[in-house]
Fold:
Amino acid sequence: MSEEKKEGQAGQGEGGQKQAKPKVPRQAMPEQDPHVRAKNFDEVTLGYTEEQALLEASRCLQCKKPFCTTGCPVGIDIKSFIGLIQSKDYLSALAKIKESSLLPAVCGRVCPQEMQCEKVCILSKKGDSVAIGRLERFVADFQAKHGGGRIPKAAAPSGKKIAIVGAGPSGLTAAFDLTVMGHKVTVFEALHKAGGVLVYGIPEFRLPKAIVEREVKVLEQMGVEIKLNYVIGKIKTIDQLMSEDGFDAVYICNGAGLPWFMGIPGENLNGVYSANEFLTRSNLMKAFRFPEYDTPIKRFKNVAVVGGGNVAMDAVRTALRLGADNAYIVYRRSKDELPARKEEVEHAMHEGVQFKLLVAPVKVLGNEQGWVKGLECIEMELGLPDDSGRRRPVAKPGSEFTLEVDAVVVSIGTSSNPLLFQTTPGLGQTKKGYIEVENEETCRTTKKGVFAGGDIVTGSATVILAMGAGRSAAKNIDQYLKTGEWWSR
Amino acid sequence: MYEILKKTVWSAQEPRITEFVLDAPEIARAHKAGQFVIIIPRESGERIPLTIADKDAEKGTINILFQEVGASTMLLGSFKEGDKLMHVAGPLGKPTHVEKFGTVVCIGGGVGIAPVHPIAKAMKDAGNKVISILGARTKDLLIYEDLMRKASTEVRITTDDGSYVKKGFVTDELKQMIEVEKIPVDLVVVIGPPIMMKFVCKVTEPHRLKTFASLNTIMVDGTGMCGACRVTVGGKTKFVCVDGPEFDGHEVDYDEMMARQRQYLPEEKQAADICRKKLCHSA
Structure:
């Protein structure tokens, strides 16, 4: 409840905008009790009631020149949608968001609003910003609960066919936009469920899968064809899609899915997992419900998760829910540098996750049967800033110690899957292994008619940035289909 | 959904060996020797990697073969002709490197004979002399003999108990060929239990005889995303699903691989017990 106290002090409007100054504090998000939720997979946050949403919306000053929209990667007209909440027209508020973003129920939950729209909200200068993300979630959930709204209409058929490779946030967004423009879209998904990271990565307790299914269903009702179990590059090449299947353009948004390991001794012992494996088992395969579901997962008592991002927080909180007595985050920098959202870090702390900060793993220790029995670590201190601008962690000699754990989950990032490059001649690759594009706005690759966006271009980023890329891609694909123009290096 | 067009029970002895012919035209067309599919039998099912044992690109069918050793394969074995599998993804993995090597020895042990079949066929089509060595515990568990005879120039068979052809292991026959009969061999391809692949490699290594081993590790997604299938090859970590499934057999750390294969034994047993009860009830 610490958040509530902190938020209770807020509520002063900023000068220069002459509206009445609201005295209402930022409304805290109702959530499950930390001790209870640490043992279940139900959603942690419960969402605003209508009363709370109205109170929160009343805090918005409806600025003449709103900054919030400039902070949104997809430029949602935030002022207008909150204004519509103020007048209790929730469905119109949702429609307003959907002009810019396909997945408000998702983004309202997983967007790092504190780094985006809420960061530039004028109220944040002297207190707490409007809880824009929570309001976004409220209108989306309101419609899901009460119905209403309609399936968006597509323009007259253009006769053009587009293939999208990957049914993650970027692909779904592009599919939506292109369908509205009148094009026939087929999405090819490698896994057996659409949603990408929304279904394999982000856990149920942070993003219920029913929400993703609902959004995918809307797309299908609009006429988008989603082909599951299609690993493009294997069952068909990009060239075959264009020459044999008659697709006029292809959008590649297959993500950055290849997990990095640390390259330290003992990393292939039993009980060492990539965060991708750990989360895919639990989320996509529902192994947390084994043996009701067929995929097994180990229920370890002492688990170390290496890394400090949102994925690491998802993994460590999953370990807790699977029954760990001790779940550790092992991160080589300090709390200030943790790349995860503050809210996720706080949630993890409240649930009992132990943070081993300024600590780096050195070696995974194993027993005679080949299972993890500990993680040898070394303490770090922060030195001068490195290329990323963050202070470089430096090992403290002689500070080695062993964390007694029976599992280690490696969550230090991902890179691009080499599969598509192997079978797509002419597709340019950057030094870091991602797809080369003219620029992130046009999404045009070095291969005519082939566009790319999302993590496969930028490296691992956020859901909303991937969605933004999907939107840019759709706009540029539409233009290409009309003009046939391409670029040259 | 992928219909089971034909079901063959190769061996009624437990654990049963069963083969499905699946309606999967696009996979059949794209498939090359050495590749596998991931199968999910039902909504709550797990992702099961199975090597494609045969195909008919014109009819649009693929053959998969499995031994009913765990809950998921027992469940799969309970499917009948006309039933449909929920999901089949593939073909996955890198195809076998096929060219004219000269004499190629294809070794299959147990259910490993099935995945070696398309490789033998492709090697023979590429102009190689193919000598196949098939090993089974006992005569009743020997599969694909006729198909392997068609796909090979010569077939040799061993059974652990001596119930068919020659008593012994595939390694004995391999040694006999290269050390006693002095048959010049240019390449060995081996698929079977890890322990068998390990010992085949021990036979070929002193002769510097190039040996491909096709690994069947635990996988989840099968597309390079999770690393469950990782093995150490030549001191480096590789993913069987995207870097393999075939590797230089002499470079593989089999002991680590075997330890990793045992990770879920208690869970597998738990699931198998539940499955047995349920299947008994429904039978």
About this structure: Chain B has nine helices and 16 strands. Chain B has a mean pLDDT of 94.
